[in-house]
Amino acid sequence: MSDFGYIKQINANKTGMVYKFIKQGDVFIHTMCEGKLLYNLGFTPGDIIGKTLHDFFPDDYAATKHQYYLKAWDGNYVHYESKIEGVYHVGSLRPVLSNGEVVEVIGSSINVTEQLPGSTHEISQTIESARPSVKRDLMIKQSNNIIFIPLMEIIFIERIGRKSVIHTTSKKFETYEALTSLCQVLDERFIGCHRSYIINMDYLEVIKLNKQSYIGYFKNYTKNAKISKNKLIELQKYKSY
Q: Cβ(206)–Cβ(216) under 8 Å?
């Protein structure tokens, strides 16, 4: 399940928190924070924005979260569960890329305390079942070879004839895997925007209306992708979240 789907399921407007951070030297600085969970934890946006983790969290908790932040800044989607001040929450960190480099990370946390059973074992099981898996690479087969393609390098995938062509920041790959099969093994940054295209939303820069169709343009890449009109709202939600 994607972060957006999970947030929608348990009503993030009432239970969640969204924030952003950047890296300055060896520390991470928060640039935005909002949501009810923020106030449930006893903070206001002013307590978070412009501050590091150690400025408002206890040292041991801040050190743990710092490790998650480091992984996200390396270009990984990070999902974790945590507890502070008696509040259990599921967290997610999504890196945002520009020119192949991480420029900021968008984080979300959902308060799941009221949705969880009473025992510690049951709580762990419930959180684990709600937490998406983390993937680093897309695995494809070519002849007798198995190729691992880093997800953060994939710009988009298009269907041409019987093959799926995977456009990355360095080269193209071809596979006979159908787009529907590839979509099932990709993570939430990838959206099937057209029957012949899957795009990495972190690279999508502009959507233009071309006569009666929509075209997606990507950062520092000359090729483009078709976008179905009925996918526009989903793409806009992802970009604005």
A: yes
